[in-house]
Each structure stands twice: as structure tokens, then as C-alpha cells.
Write a structure and sequence with these properties.
Blueprint: H1 2-19, H2 49-66
Length: about 70
């Protein structure tokens, strides 16, 4: 009987003490709303006409070398 009383007392203390931390009587603090901004998309450097010029010069050089035989 003594162990039953000890277990019952410990269980009731555990239940009552955890509910004490659930909240208080103070005013709730409201956070600022979160504003999501879309990231700016930047085009990669070096793309465009310069890449096509280099590709054209490389292709012309390969064709020239292939026709030299």
C-alpha cells in the first residue's frame, strides 16, 4: 500500500507541475509578418554573342585543319 501511495503521489505531482509551464497571464507577443521576396535572377556572365563567336572560330579552325590533308 505504501508503494502505491508513493507512485500515485509522484504521478500527480508530475502531471500538475508540467501543466504549470503551459502559459502565463501576460499579454501574447505578436511577431512581425514574414515577407517573402523572390530572389533576383542574374544571367551568367559570358553568355551571349561572345560564346557564339568563340564557338564559330573554333569550328572554322577545326574545318581548316581537317581540309589541309
Amino acid at each position: 500500500m505504501r508503494i502505491t501511495n508513493t507512485v500515485a503521489t509522484a504521478a500527480s505531482i508530475a502531471v500538475l507541475s508540467t501543466s504549470a509551464f503551459a502559459g502565463g497571464m501576460s499579454e501574447p507577443v505578436m511577431d512581425e509578418p514574414i515577407v517573402m521576396e523572390e530572389p533576383m535572377v542574374e544571367e551568367p556572365a559570358g553568355s551571349g554573342v561572345a560564346g557564339l563567336v568563340v564557338l564559330g572560330v573554333l569550328a572554322a579552325a577545326l574545318i581548316y585543319v581537317a581540309t589541309q590533308d
